[in-house]
Structures are given as structure tokens and as C-alpha cells.
């Protein structure tokens, strides 16, 4: 039983990353939606965290705002759009695929293709037997033989 | 062909390296504002505790002005405040204040202590107007033109240098147009 409670403490402590108790919506279904939205929005103060993870005051304001909009009956997209309209695509932790992000999304695939092509040609090249070297001239042959003879 | 295999990774490294070097010169806290060339969002804020008048969008229209987001808890505001005082003293440009998420009384205490450079101050205790403005931190300053459109946003404190190099020329240009 004790083991179970310790285990439970670890397993369910993940919820501590989410909204603070005073922010939670009463309806668990709506709260779950709010938490999903939080996880996708960047905290603009501490930029490597989502607003779900951040304890910056601005992140708290945004969490409350997300819950207010959801309680008003807005869809997830509408809530996201509301915040993107104010802070730009920058607040989305997953940038949308569009003209100015093509490089971002396309580069890894392009790099993989280039690397694969490079590896293909490199490996194919290395299988070819080394080109036979030109036969030695008579002078060279004599020189080699002389040296070998000297060494006995 | 063989040579390309060896040169190519170096080329890739140079391109990627140049990209990152450029990235290092940019300030990540400077998020481009969504409001540029759009009208200042509508708001009507009450006065901060201890002052008479609040601040609404209507007050700001009519001439080129600055809207400055400040707070008593904001450290860089200490750097900026004397510059704002100088600007007001020199009658350089009207400055409106948005007191962001300050406890009641703190905003007034700040202004009593360091002086009040603002034509009017609005109390944004809940931070809602700041979100409408896309504020990411304090201080932040919006340059608003005669028609009430946001034309520029300064992230961080306005220094004397920044004023003479960037803001003053911009404001003069906006006044001419």
C-alpha cells in the first residue's frame, strides 16, 4: 500500500506542471482541453517553456485567459487564434507549415536525402577496385631491382 | 568527384555556421509585434490608485505619442525612467503610461519617488490590455501615429542613445507624414 502511494505520488505529480489550483476549470473535460492548449503555447517571458510549465506571471495570465475563452464556448482553434493574433506565430511551440517555415520543416528531410545520396556514392565508389597503376618504365624497373639486390 | 565528397561537408559546415553566427547577433527577447501598422487595440483603463485620470485608446489619438508599459517591480524601468523624465521635460513627445500588474498603490509610489513623465496613466492590474498589446515584458514602448496606429515597438528600456539614434528620427518622420 505504501509502495502504491509512493508510486502514485510520482506518477501523478506530472499534473503539477499544469495550471495552478486557483486557475482550474470545474469541468474536467474543459480543463483537459485547456491543458492541451497550454502545452502548445510558448511562454514569451521564459521562452523555452510552455505556459503550462512556466510560473511567470504572464504565463499565469495566459492560462487564465485560455480557460476564460474555453468557458465562453470557443473551440481550441479559436482560443489559439486569439492568442496568435496578439503574439504571432512565435507563441506556437510547433510552428505551422507555411511559406516562411518551409526551410525549417524541409531542411531535415533535405539533409537526410543529401546524406543518403552522399553515402550511396561514397560506398559505391569504394567498392570499385583501385585503378591499375601504369606499368613501370624500364629504367624504374632496373632501379627497383638494383635496390632489392643491394638489400640482399 | 572525389574532391566534392571532401569539400561538401566543409561547405555545409560553413553555411550552417554562418546561420548560427547570425542567430547569435539577434536578441531572442525581441519578438516581432503583431500590431505594427495596425490600430492600437481598444481599451479603457481606470486610473491607478492615487491619480485622477485613467487611460483609454481615445486619449492617445491625434498626435504621435509613446505608450510605455511600466511597473514598479520592473528592474530595467529604473534605467528607462530618467530618460522618460527628460523627454517630458524637453516636451519631446507625449508619453502615456500603462501600469502593468502592479499592486494598488505601488504605481503611485513609483511615480512619487521618481517623478511622473506621463500625460496619463492606466491601471492594467489584471494584465489583460497588456496581452491585447502582445506585451512580453516590461518595459515596452509603442510608437503610435496620428491616426492611432502602432508603428513601432521598443522591447526593453529606452536609453538616451536609443532615443537619438532610433526613436527621434522615427517620430519626426511620422510627424511629417
TrEMBL record, chain A:
Keyword tags: Cytochrome c-type biogenesis, Heme, Iron, Membrane, Metal-binding, Signal, Transmembrane, Transmembrane helix
CC per GO annotation: plasma membrane
GO molecular function, one term: metal ion binding
Residue ranges of every copy of the CcmH/CycL/Ccl2/NrfF N-terminal domain listed in the record: 7-148
Transmembrane segments: 102-123
Keyword check for rRNA-binding: no
Pfam families: CcmH
Similarity comment: family membership: Belongs to the CcmH/CycL/Ccl2/NrfF family.
PANTHER family: CYTOCHROME C-TYPE BIOGENESIS PROTEIN CCMH
Purpose: Possible subunit of a heme lyase.
Record protein name field: Cytochrome c-type biogenesis protein
Source organism of this protein record: Hyphococcus luteus
Lineage: Bacteria, Pseudomonadati, Pseudomonadota, Alphaproteobacteria, Parvularculales
From TrEMBL, chain B:
Keyword Disulfide bond: yes
Start and end residues of each Thioredoxin domain: 34-176
Entry annotated with the keyword Disulfide bond: yes
GO MF terms held by the record: disulfide oxidoreductase activity
GO cellular component annotations of the record: outer membrane-bounded periplasmic space
PROSITE patterns documented for this protein: THIOREDOXIN_1 (PS00194), THIOREDOXIN_2 (PS51352)
GO biological process terms on file: cytochrome complex assembly
SUPFAM superfamilies per record: Thioredoxin-like
Pfam families recorded: Redoxin
Entry keyword set: Cytochrome c-type biogenesis, Disulfide bond, Redox-active center
Gene3D superfamilies, per database record: Glutaredoxin (3.40.30.10)
Compartments it resides in: Cell envelope
Family: Belongs to the thioredoxin family. DsbE subfamily.
Name listed for the protein in its UniProt record: DsbE family thiol:disulfide interchange protein
Organism listed in the record: Hyphococcus luteus
Phylogenetic classification of the source organism: Bacteria, Pseudomonadati, Pseudomonadota, Alphaproteobacteria, Parvularculales
Amino acid at each position: 500500500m505504501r509502495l502504491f502511494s509512493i508510486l502514485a505520488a510520482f506518477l501523478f505529480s506530472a499534473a503539477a506542471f499544469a495550471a495552478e489550483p486557483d486557475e482550474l476549470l470545474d469541468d474536467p473535460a474543459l480543463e483537459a482541453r485547456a491543458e492541451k492548449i497550454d502545452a502548445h503555447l510558448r511562454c514569451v517571458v521564459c521562452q523555452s517553456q510552455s505556459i503550462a510549465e512556466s510560473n511567470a506571471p504572464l504565463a499565469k495570465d495566459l492560462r487564465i485567459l485560455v480557460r476564460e475563452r474555453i468557458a465562453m464556448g470557443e473551440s481550441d482553434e479559436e482560443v489559439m487564434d486569439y492568442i496568435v493574433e496578439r503574439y504571432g506565430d512565435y507563441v506556437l511551440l510547433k510552428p505551422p507549415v507555411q511559406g516562411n517555415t518551409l526551410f525549417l520543416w524541409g531542411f531535415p528531410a533535405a539533409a537526410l536525402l543529401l546524406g543518403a545520396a552522399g553515402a550511396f556514392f561514397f560506398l559505391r565508389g569504394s567498392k570499385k577496385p583501385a585503378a591499375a597503376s601504369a606499368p613501370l618504365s624500364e629504367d624504374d624497373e632496373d632501379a627497383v631491382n638494383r635496390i632489392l639486390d643491394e638489400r640482399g | 568527384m572525389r574532391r566534392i565528397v571532401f569539400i561538401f561537408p566543409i561547405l555545409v559546415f560553413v553555411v550552417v555556421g554562418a546561420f548560427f553566427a547570425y542567430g547569435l547577433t539577434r536578441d531572442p527577447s525581441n519578438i516581432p509585434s503583431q500590431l505594427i501598422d495596425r490600430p492600437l487595440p481598444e481599451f479603457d483603463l481606470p486610473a491607478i490608485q492615487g491619480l485622477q485620470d485613467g487611460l483609454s485608446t481615445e486619449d492617445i489619438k491625434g498626435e504621435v505619442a509613446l505608450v510605455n508599459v511600466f511597473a514598479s517591480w520592473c528592474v530595467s524601468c529604473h534605467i528607462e525612467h530618467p530618460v522618460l523624465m527628460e523627454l517630458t521635460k524637453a516636451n519631446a513627445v507625449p508619453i502615456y503610461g500603462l501600469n502593468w500588474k502592479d499592486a494598488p498603490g505601488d504605481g503611485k509610489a513609483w511615480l512619487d519617488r521618481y517623478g511622473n513623465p506621463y500625460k496619463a496613466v492606466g491601471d492594467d492590474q489584471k494584465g489583460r490590455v497588456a496581452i491585447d498589446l502582445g506585451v512580453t515584458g516590461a518595459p515596452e514602448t509603442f510608437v503610435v501615429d496620428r491616426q492611432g496606429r502602432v508603428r513601432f515597438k521598443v522591447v526593453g528600456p529606452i536609453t538616451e542613445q536609443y532615443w537619438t539614434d532610433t526613436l527621434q528620427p522615427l517620430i519626426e518622420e511620422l510627424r511629417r507624414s
